[in-house]
Amino acid sequence: MLTVPYLFIEAFxxxxxxxxxxxxxxxVRLLRFTAYFISVFSPAVYVALTTxxxxxxxxxxxxxxxxxxxxxxxxAFVEAMMMGIIYEILxxxxxxxxxxxxxxxxxxxxxxxGESAVSAGLIGAPMVIVxxxxxxxxxxxxxxxxxxxxxxxxxxLLAAFMGxxxxxxxxxxxxxxxxxxxxxxxxxxAPLAPIVTExxxxxxxxxxxxxxxxxxxxxxxxxxxxxxxxxxxxxxxNNS
Amino acid sequence: MLENxxxxxxxxxxxxxICRLMLTMAYLPYVNxxxxxxxxxxxxxxxxxxxxxxxxxxxxxxxxxxKLSLIQSIEVILGPCGKILGAMYVWFxxxxxxxxxxxxxxxxxxxxxxxxxxxxxxxxxALFAAYAVYQGLETICTLGEIIAPVILASVVLVFVxxxxxxxxxxxxxxxxxxxxxxxxxxxxxxxxxTLGLFLWxxxxxxxxxxxxxxxxxxxxxxxxxxxxxxxxxxxGVFGLEQAKSLDFPFFHVxxxxxxxxxxxxxxxxxxGFWVIGMxxxxxxxxxLAVLTGADLLKLKDYxxxxxxxxxxxxxxxxxxxxxxxxxxxxxxxxxxxxxxLLFTFAIPLxxxxxxxxxxxxxxx
Amino acid sequence: MKKLGLIFLAITIMAAPLIGCWSRRELDTLxxxxxxxxxxxxxxxxxxxxxQIIKPSALKGSSSSEAAPSGSTGVLVLxxxxxxxxxxxxxATMQSDRKLFFPQNKVIVVGEELAxxxxxxxxxxxxxxxxxxxxxxxLVAKGKAHDIINxxxxxxxxxxxxxxxxxxxxxxxxxxxxxxxxxxIKNLTNPGSxxxxxxxxxxxxxxxxxxxxxxxxxxxxxxxxxxxxxxxxETRGLNWVLGKVVSGIILVKSPLDENxxxxxxxxxxxxxxxxxxxNNDIKTIVEVDAEGNLAEQxxxxxxxxxxxxxxxxxxxAQVIKDEIQLVLEKAQKEWGVxxxxxxxxxxxxxxxxxxxxxxxxxxxxxxxxxxxxVKAKIRSSxxxxxxxxxx
Lengths: 240, 364, 391
Known about the structure:
The structure holds three protein chains of three kinds.
Chain A: H1 22-51, H2 59-68, H3 76-95, H4 102-119, H5 125-137, H6 145-179, E1 182-183, E2 186-187
Antiparallel strand pairs in A: 1-2
Chain B: H1 9-26, H2 40-64, H3 70-78, H4 82-110, H5 118-135, H6 137-162, H7 179-191, H8 195-202, H9 212-245, H10 249-255, E1 258-259, E2 263-264, H11 267-296, H12 306-320, H13 324-330, H14 333-357
Antiparallel strand pairs in B: 1-2
Helix pairs in contact in B: 1-6, 1-9, 1-11, 2-7, 2-8, 2-9, 2-14, 3-4, 4-5, 4-11, 4-12, 5-11, 5-12, 6-11
Chain C: H1 2-14, H2 16-19, E1 30-40, E2 47-54, H3 56-59, E3 75-82, H4 85-92, E4 99-101, E5 107-110, H5 112-117, H6 120-128, E6 137-141, H7 145-150, H8 159-168, H9 181-189, E7 196-204, E8 211-222, E9 225-230, H10 232-242, E10 248-254, E11 257-278, E12 281-297, H11 306-335, H12 342-349, H13 351-357, H14 361-365, E13 369-380
Parallel strand pairs in C: 1-4, 1-5, 5-6, 6-7, 12-13
Antiparallel strand pairs in C: 1-2, 2-3, 7-8, 8-9, 10-11, 11-12
Helix pairs in contact in C: 10-11, 12-13
């Protein structure tokens, strides 16, 4: 089922949220935001930190990462691009696999590429961890996972070019692009930009069902009221 | 009309605040300007009324011609010879954008990326800013709306995290040299703003022009409330002598944050936030320069001159100063104060007098 | 057409990483430095700088096939000479195969001989270099800094970590000072105060014939030249005046059994310095407020009643006063250095008078009349009241 206009926030909202209690659904929604950021920024941040900003890492972590990189032939950027591309290949292959062969091929993917490449000293173990984390997180917000892939690869390129500055400028550029988009006349990033304070309650956490009495302002321009706004549960007025 | 977008008051507040705050966050140039003692925080608070006084001519002028932007109102007041004055303003904005670009490059070259040539940072930022300028006024202001709360919150977070290393006795004695240097310092701080010019250019595009007075008060209040804790924190952590000798005081404050043994060395993160804020700052100034230029040349749309102006700006940034020391000398309180005041106070005051005397007014 | 031009430009810029970037440093091209020691070199006019460099592969021998032999440390020590610190650092790259990486440097040790000549030239590098952190700890070695950097510590692989941990846990006895570069430079540049730094030396352990590192007091500077050392109790006296005592043990004689000791554990302490100037007569009042617990008693007297507690409190206050007197004797009268912050206190309270006194404050210091008021309080006595053995 397709609803229009489609906003950015809708990728993080799912209908199952509204069947559970609001507190737990809010936590899950925040988890989705975290997963989005992990999925987009992880490889880029890893490349930027280990190539340009080693002083940001805590000392023990720095020593482990440096030890893991001791024997590997490629710089971190090449590793990240290689692992990203191999992961995309695995994903595409997994879609078109005949079912009997499925198990064997996934084991090949995991064991050969992950385990053996690390033991042979071709790829550092932290890189494998980062790419697996990225891959799994990208399924949490499944509806925009294609844009996540493009953004991720762009950020890795920018990070290899200029480190954290590159990532931030790239984020600014992407943000500029997203802000200027409109979906059927409604700004794509509403209600985050321009800020519509009445609608912000449904973005980061799931509000109570009895507090959702108005439709989003920018979508339903005249038709705002859903129900009368008196639905908060309270004890009955006459003491019965 | 060159621009079809409209911005609301809230967006105006947030974007003006960012444009004013960004350079003070990294450079904090006021430590080396009057007063030369630890009463800088009092200067910051006292700059609030002085801001209001200094912006009065531009405010009155903008309100008088509230549907015309800068160049158009100059032409109404002075006739065709206003073009020269308009060209001076275009130069002022170009110059200012180049200065900000150069400061961005200098900061990034000094600390995180020492071997990179400055032009890389300037060119990349100018390119992305050109993209933002293409998209128009609404995009830039909406960007400001998203980013400004994040940056303000991060600054407050820095204050909270450094609180345990603060030594408030460094701020005493209070009013050691009397009130006069403090007032001079407040005047220097207030003279650095160009927000009046922003207002003058953007006034045809603001939605509710009745509430502009309140918005301006809020902007100046936020600025004073931000600069004062910055001064307190910088002098509290480093002591006065050190703070004067540091190039980027607030950045060093962020470097000194150390909580619970693991939250240390987060200065690169701060640089990241600062870069995004500067990006919006540069986009805004670039946009204003382009808009003013297009107005002057009587173009139908400002888009054709974006890249041309961008190239001029990048080259100008490289030629501005030979090194960072040169740049700092230009930006010290001795020269920059009077240069700014000429364009933001003196010329609008004269124009206002001419407009009042000549009874020129445009009412729709 | 414009969009095409922009996209082309963007792609060209993004292809730049293939060419090679300027500030890029791969992790295995770094020599991570954890401590540096600066000494005077035998050659005239040169400095000899010792670097303690971490070997990450020796620290983590688990993932690769070679196991690290037990007992080896994870550091490599290099010494190089140069006319300035940064000169020596670059010269070190002729011995090490990687460029030195300073941001993880936590410990800076200055040799005694060099400190006596003046530490100010060394501080410029520490202040100016963007990689060096201002929160690194500064120590002065007794003897040569080279020995300290070369030393090994049995508990951790990286000796610099051991030094940092020792500094952090020195608040358990409060007989050492914690000074980082920021603090040192602050005290140096302030016209009314003199800096201090912690002192570290190598102690010979008689049984195992090993040398171990140990903190033994404070090094005191007059302006920027090392002038002398304070021992542990004098350092604690200094900490009482500065209000930096966090914890520690005070030994007093037991009230009814004078040749046995009672140990009182300090829980917290505060201090306040108030100057008073009356007709060119400078007087300073130091008020110390200390709280403690009865931690251990060797005597078999019942001490847990209020009369005994009062006696213990008096003795505790006397011990504190004595420690402060010791350090005042040495620093104020004998050396004439202001490490207590008296000058800063005068500046805060009497700014106009300070302007006149500022230039010869150190000569005036020995005539300042210091009055010490100590208030000691003992709160509790642990988990038992009557000592074992009394019946």
